[in-house]
TrEMBL record:
InterPro entries: CheY-like_superfamily (IPR011006), NreC/VraR/RcsB-like_REC (IPR058245), Sig_transdc_resp-reg_receiver (IPR001789), Tscrpt_reg_LuxR_C (IPR000792), WalR-like (IPR039420). Transmembrane segments: none annotated. The lineage of its organism: Bacteria, Bacillati, Bacillota, Bacilli, Bacillales. The keyword rRNA-binding does not apply. This is Response regulator transcription factor. SUPFAM superfamilies: CheY-like (SSF52172). It comes from Paenibacillus alginolyticus. The modification 4-aspartylphosphate is found at residue 58. Keywords: DNA-binding, Phosphoprotein, Transcription, Transcription regulation.
Length: 232
């Protein structure tokens, strides 16, 4: 059986030499090449024939999370399976690596587990860190929900009920003249409301402002009312 071909992308040269020697002692593993900078890796993925079945990719290269983008390039250019290497569990970087196409990750201090991980990944088995990855995804979703809630509250505190009604009618396709007639106010007053809205939301147009409010779900919280006070 042919050994599993491995490429290591790692900027710590001492650790790189040690890892290469350790993996090459495994009878079914072969480190075919190593690179230590993001530039070298990009050039290799762009111009060379696939040299590896599995890529061990350091997340941080020259103090930048360049390994994340390189993971996607390794997948697209070579079809290689990517295992991310990290010194600590940086959840955001690891999650972004999974989004970029990485299959697994490993803490560097537990390098002795890498041979088994490489074999599992090469055999297309599920990531041994699948449960951890799912926990990170759930944490990411939770943080995004909290971020959304904060944005909703911030905008709710910023926009007045009247401005929200004006925006909702704009979102429904009404003109400023129609809005003025609906609320029995002057067209100038409507324009003043729209001007305040654009300034508060930093939007280039009333349609853009309405889109922002719709995306936050604020139109679902209230109803547009006419001059007679009845709901639509």
């Amino acid at each position: 059986m042919e050994p599993i071909r491995i490429l290591i992308v790692e900027d710590d040269l001492d650790w790189l030499r040690g890892l290469k020697a350790y993996l090459n002692r495994q009878p079914d593993l072969s480190v075919e090449d190593t690179v230590s900078t993001a530039e070298e890796a990009r050039e290799l993925f762009a111009n060379a024939e696939p040299k590896a079945d599995v890529v061990l990719m350091d997340i941080m290269l020259q103090d930048e999370p360049a390994g994340i983008g390189l993971a996607e390039q390794a997948l697209l250019s070579w079809g290689a399976k990517v295992i991310m290497l990290t010194s600590m569990e940086e959840k955001d970087f690891i999650f972004r690596s999974f989004q970029a196409g990485a299959i697994d990750y490993q803490i560097k201090s537990r390098f002795e587990e890498l041979p088994a991980i490489i074999r599992a990944v090469h055999a297309r088995q599920s990531s041994i860190n699948a449960a951890v990855a799912e926990q990170m995804r759930e944490e990411f979703r939770r943080l995004k929900r909290l971020e959304h809630q904060f944005k909703v509250k911030e905008v709710s505190d910023l926009i007045t009920p009247t401005e929200l009604q004006v925006l909702e009618m704009i979102d429904q396709g009404h003109t400023q003249t129609e809005i003025a007639n609906r609320f029995f106010i002057s067209l100038r007053t409507v324009k003043i409301h729209v001007g305040h809205i654009l300034k508060k939301l930093g939007s280039p147009s009333s349609k853009d402002a309405a889109q922002k409010i719709r995306d936050l779900g604020l139109f679902e919280r209230g109803h547009t009312t006419g001059g007679d006070g009845k709901e639509d």
